[in-house]
Specification:
The structure is a single chain. With 519 residues, this protein is of the alpha/beta class. It folds into 2 domains: 7-320, NAD(P)-binding Rossmann-like Domain (Rossmann fold, 3-Layer(aba) Sandwich), CATH 3.40.50.720; 345-515, START domain (Alpha-D-Glucose-1,6-Bisphosphate, Chain A, domain 4, 2-Layer Sandwich), CATH 3.30.530. The protein has 16 helices and 19 strands. It has helices at 18-29, 63-69, 89-107, 130-143, 163-174, 193-203, 224-235, 250-260, 265-274, 300-312, 316-320, 357-365, 377-389, 463-473, 477-494, 506-510; strands at residues 9-13, 33-38, 54-57, 75-78, 111-117, 149-154, 157-158, 177-181, 187-188, 191-192, 212-215, 222-223, 241-245, 345-353, 410-411, 414-420, 424-429, 437-445, 451-459. A 7-stranded parallel β-sheet has the order 3-2-1-4-5-6-11, with helices on both faces. A 6-stranded antiparallel β-sheet has the order 14-19-18-17-16-15, with helices on one face. The chain has a two-stranded parallel ribbon with strand order 7-10. The longest helix has 19 residues, at 89-107.
Length: 519
């Protein structure tokens, strides 16, 4: 019988990063044990797999911490780099690779696997951007370590949370007309994150005599302009107008990207500077060791579709809840940076309620229809009329039942997407909007056992119009959503002693006139 210690042990550095955080569950699923080396172990605690791995504190530039972390390791993954840390990142990258390779050799590690950047053919290394130059140097250091090493060299990785993909996402979604740097004409061979992870896991099983770099990419070779246009098409955006101008230098274009997107400038600028050179695979030798299964490699359009699938499928809880477990490597993780995953605007309201949770839940489950929306009835009426004028459903649908809801029920211009009786009601908007929207209401208790009401309105903008829509209505949120939270709490307190079931909605019996349903 196989024991836990019979399974090979993998060391993963950079587990709090984009690739590392997605690689760990893939290694676990493939039957490996995993140890993570992290400078701040606390950053890993919210990962769904945190309880299934060993976490040790350390830094790749510190031999005293890397040495012990290597004990018993069969395969060591080097997935860290100092991009975004400021000047001197090349020295830091070099030092980390040297320490990692030396300690791996001393510990008898069987293989090192490193994910680097795809470098352009025929371009002297001194002419590369500092980002690509450092990536290439780290690969060389590890290959010379004496430990058989696999260096995978990728260009743009397509997956929600990838810095390169997020840059593409924000540029395309926020700018219907773009004056762009000349590098939008540069040819690039992007790769889906699912394929990157598949190749990283497969590299652990390479024969001992393999010590080399491999170019990895998807089936499509595109210019950055092509990528933006195809992203817009997959995302359902109008065709973008892209006007390249030669006067934008790599540095200026990096500043431009940092201004337009929420990707930190320390990351956006080096990535933008790297786009001035063509990055296309020169060989596909990796398939000799890690063959492509059916359906792989994934094409650009499908990779974008997978990256956008979470929001398009309205699985909001999966993307934006810290307790979520991603369903696929292309899904966002709760530990991704705040700027990853696209824009999601949120209006959050919370209040203590002097009533039992079940009284609060009766009010929550009774919203809409004849029971109204508990705030500014005129605003809801106007919104319903406006929706009807543009071909929407308006407020005319009401409710199937005045007291009870179930998944799939219509509630005015909302649809019940999720309901956990006594705790959670999530509605998805079916009114005409430039992007999907949700309204979430929760009944619970706080740390002291007091009833607590939590309300979230969420909106995922679709293009520039979506952003403009949110900011145009945000001044009214305090009245509409703030008033709604306040009046739901008050109604629960007033009706706490009423028992349901007499045929009259509790909210209608005691709500003040201003909160009566909008007829």
């Amino acid at each position: 019988m196989e024991t836990t210690t019979d399974r090979p042990l993998c060391l993963v550095t950079g587990a709090s990063g984009y690739i590392g955080g997605r690689l760990v569950p893939e290694l676990l699923a493939a039957g490996y044990r995993v140890r993570c080396l992290a400078r701040s172990p606390g950053k890993l605690r919210d990962h769904p797999w945190a309880g299934d791995v060993e976490v040790v504190q350390g830094d790749v530039t510190d031999p005293a911490s890397v040495g012990p972390a290597m004990r018993g390791v069969a395969v060591a993954y080097y997935l860290v780099h100092a991009l975004g840390t400021g000047r001197g990142f090349e020295d830091t990258d070099r030092q980390g690779a040297q320490v990692f390779g030396t300690r791996a050799a001393r510990a008898g590690v069987r293989r090192i696997v490193y994910l680097g950047g795809l470098t352009p053919a025929g371009v002297p290394e001194r002419e590369l951007s500092p980002h690509l130059r450092s990536r290439a140097e780290v690969g060389r250091v590890l290959l010379a370590s004496g430990v058989p090493t696999t260096v995978l060299r990728a260009a743009v990785i397509i997956g929600s949370g990838s810095a390169s993909f997020e840059m593409l996402r924000y540029l395309t979604e926020r700018l219907p007309v773009m004056i762009t740097p000349s590098w939008v004409r540069t040819r690039i061979q992007p790769i889906a994150v699912r394929d990157v992870l598949r190749l990283l896991v497969g590299s652990a099983r390479m024969p001992a005599d393999v010590n080399r770099a491999f170019d990895i990419g998807g089936p499509d070779v595109l210019t950055y302009r092509d990528m933006m246009l195809r992203y817009a098409a997959v995302a359902g955006l109008p065709r973008r107008v892209i006007l390249p101008v030669p006067v934008l230098t790599p540095r200026l274009s990096g500043l431009w990207v940092g201004l337009v997107t929420p990707v930190p400038a320390g990351i956006a600028r080096p990535l933008a500077e790297s786009l001035r050179h063509e990055v296309v695979c020169r060989e596909t030798d990796i398939t000799r060791y890690v063959p492509d299964p059916p359906g792989h490699p994934i094409g650009f359009d499908d990779a974008v579709r997978l990256a956008l699938k979470r929001v398009q499928d309205a699985e909001v809880a999966t993307r934006w809840s810290s307790a979520s477990v991603p369903g696929a490597p292309s899904d966002p993780l709760p530990t991704d940076p705040a700027w990853a995953g696209g824009s999601l605007y949120t209006d959050l309201r919370e209040r203590p309620v002097d009533a039992p949770p079940e009284a609060l839940w009766r009010v929550i489950e009774g919203v809409g229809g004849e029971n109204g929306w508990y705030s500014f009835p005129l605003a809801w009426s106007v919104r319903g009329i406006a929706d009807r004028l543009v071909g929407g459903v308006g407020l005319r649908r009401g409710r199937r039942d005045a007291h009870r809801l179930r998944v799939g029920d219509s509630v005015d211009f909302w649809r019940v997407e999720e309901i956990e009786p006594g705790r959670l009601l999530r509605l998805r908007a079916e009114m005409r909007l430039p992007g999907p929207a949700w309204l979430e209401m929760c009944a619970g208790t706080d740390g002291s056992g007091r009833t607590h009401y939590r309300q979230r309105a969420l909106f995922h903008p679709h293009g520039l119009l979506g952003h403009a829509y949110w900011w145009s209505i945000s001044p009214f949120h305090a009245v509409v959503f703030g008033g709604m939270a306040r009046n739901i709490a008050r109604t629960a307190e007033r009706t706490a002693g009423d028992a349901p079931g007499d045929g009259t909605p509790a909210t209608d019996r005691t709500a003040p006139p201003a909160l009566r349903p909008t007829r």
